[in-house]
Amino acid sequence: MELLPLQPYIIRALLGVFLISLNASIAGSFTVFRNVSFLVAGASHSALAGAALFILLGSMGMPEINPIVGGLIFALIVAISAGYTRKEDINTVIGISFAMSMSLAVLLISMIREYSSRVWTLLIGDIYLLTQHDIYLMVGVTAFNITLILMFYRAFLFISFDFEGAEAFGLNARLYNYVLLSIIALSSVILLKGVGAILVFAMLVAPAAASNEVARNIREVFLFSFLIALLSGLGGIAVSFFVDVSPGAFASLLATLTYFFILSLRRLSGKVQI
Amino acid sequence: MVKEEGIIAENLFFRYSNFPVLSNISFEIKKGEFVAITGPNGSGKTTLLKLILGILQPESGKITIYGHDSSEREQIQAITGFMPQREHISSGFPILVRDVMMMGISARKRLKKLSEEDEEIAIKALEAVGMNEEFLNRKFDRLSGGQKQRVLFARAIAVEPEILLLDEPFNGVDIPSQNRMLDTVMELRRKGKTVIIVVHNINPLLHHIDKLMLLRNRLIACGRIEEVLTEQNLRKAYGASIPIIYCEEGFGHPVYGDTH
Ligand SMILES: Nc1ncnc2c1ncn2[C@@H]1O[C@H](COP(=O)(O)OP(=O)(O)OP(=O)(O)O)[C@@H](O)[C@H]1O
Ligand SMILES: [Mg+2]
After folding, report:
1. pLDDT one-digit tens code per residue, A193-237
2. Can you say whether the dihedral through the CA atoms of A141, A143, A148, A149 is positive or negative?
3. Shortest-distance Cα residue to atom 16 of ligand 1
4. B112 touches chain A (CB under 8 A)
5. Which domains are assigned to chain B?
6. Measured between CB atoms, which of A161, A168, A218 is closest to B82?
7. Does residue A128 sit in helix, strand or coil?
8. Does B41 contact ligand 1 (Cβ within 6 A)?
9. Buried-state track B196-219, b at ≥16 Cβ within 10 A, e below 16
10. Burial letters A241-255, b for 16+ CB under 10 A, else e
11. Rounded CA separation B65/B76 (Å)
12. Angle, CA of B89, B160 and B68, to the nearest 5°
């Protein structure tokens, strides 16, 4: 029993939580700044179709590739279409890609019945099922995203604040927008295996949205969202030691409750001031 | 010898999807002129600024900016400073005035690392609009509407542009701050910079501008104030009669709003 925390699968789960929190911090915050939270839901669900396709191809004798890679490709397509769309239509486009991917996913699942549980796993997620390969993929994508955000931080901030201004001051705003939306989409997919498509939104957006309410500057948004996601994730894992519940679901519950807690606290303090 | 070219537009035509916004637009703005653009909502004022900035390209016609064709975006944007309309800004996150000020400066440096000097530049620009260093650490979102406008104005002048484009800079700005902004504009003009300003109320500017453009998807009139501000032109632009009152210095001031 004492050795339980040293089990490889637990170490992988803890690493997974850490990586998820990094994504919740950088990609989550920019999701809130750029006001594209729907993209997170769209990308993660579209990724299911991509993953299902890769599982199908694998079952047909193609070389086995991690289905998450298929998910990454589909999510990128959603991000690029969203970037291509006018701001007013963006939610519709994402919503329809969402619906299209889900239909495709269900269709594909019905074609690969014997493997369909693998796809459903991605819908619900399980942090304890992360493989070594999943962790490598998560580390790779997270490092890639962090590098891009460090390089283009000011550009991303600028296009989130005023797109036209960014264009006018000589930034290739459209290109940066594609890159930023892609980062957000990639991060969404990276969370898939750990928390499941249904709950990606909770883990990626809720911590940043909560931080955004209380932070005094951008740095604090990054820091607080990392901490909220980390503590929620660890909380989920801790609880799952004692009770047989899904750690991802519990973590998402903690993260979303934090958001509502902070929101009501703010409303309350606002009322007191008046 | 290189001809001293300002901004020359010939027969511009522009539309978003299938809705024509600007047609038949021709004008010339000389280097160092102070020009105001006015016209009703949706008349294409912001769109015209974007054409000048090279953000949008005309579907037909031609516009050159200091000798650069509008497709030479990089060259144009290296010499322009822009203040967007406040409605086009989304600041629902704790971005600091410092971050906002650094946007333009950083974009100019192609996102290279910022230095102490850059902060000095930002502070100087803020001082020009009557704000000081302390504002750097204030949340942009918590500023009043007028203060926000002043920061956006400061951001535009911080890059020391040759051409300054201001989209409704005075909306919600108190009179002393308006005057300070106007003083800054006049100083830039003395240094030979070109200033183009979109306004709804032309009155505070009448004594300062060299040229006025009255726009309603086409150019109703363009030129010296007294040529442009006629009741007939105003009726063409706004579809309503706007009386003009002449001040002691002989400028015709349109009287907007309910005059009953
Ligand atoms: N990105 C866009 N896509 C489609 N139509 C647009 C777009 N931007 C502006 N328009 C339309 O073009 C017309 C001119 O818009 P513009 O913003 O240039 O007007 P404006 O003169 O600046 O108005 P306002 O005084 O309200 O700022 C409007 O009818 C507007 O609805
Ligand atoms: Mg406008």
Report:
1. 899 988 999 999 999 999 999 999 999 999 999 999 999 999 999
2. positive
3. B44
4. no
5. 1-79+161-260 (3.40.50.300), 89-160 (no CATH)
6. A168
7. helix
8. yes
9. bbbbeebeebbeebbbbbbbbbbb
10. eeeeebbbbbbbbbb
11. 7
12. 90
Contact A91, A38 (CB under 8 A): yes
Residue entry with tokens 């920061």: B151
Give the span between the Cα atoms of A190 and A71, in whole angstroms.
9
User: How far apart are the CA of B235 and the centre of ligand 2, in A?
Assistant: 20
The tens-digit pLDDT sequence of chain B (260 residues) is 445 689 999 999 999 988 899 999 999 999 999 999 999 999 999 999 999 999 999 999 999 999 999 999 999 999 999 999 988 898 889 999 999 999 999 998 888 888 888 899 999 999 988 899 999 999 999 998 889 999 999 999 999 999 999 999 998 888 888 888 899 999 999 999 999 999 999 888 988 999 999 999 999 989 998 888 888 888 888 888 888 888 877 777 888 765 45
Tell me how far apart the alpha carbons of residues B90 and B141 are, in angstroms, rounded to a whole number. Answer: 9
Question: Which residues of chain A approach chain B closer than 8 Å at the C-beta?
Answer: 32-33, 35, 151-152, 154-155, 157-158, 160-171, 212, 215-218, 220-221
CB A16 within 8 A of CB A164: no
| CATH code, A8-265 | 1.10.3470.10
Residues of B within 8 A of A168 (CB-CB) are 50, 53, 55, 77, 80, 82, 84, 165
> Encoding tokens for residue B123?
């502070």
Give the ipTM of the model, two decimals please. Answer: 0.89
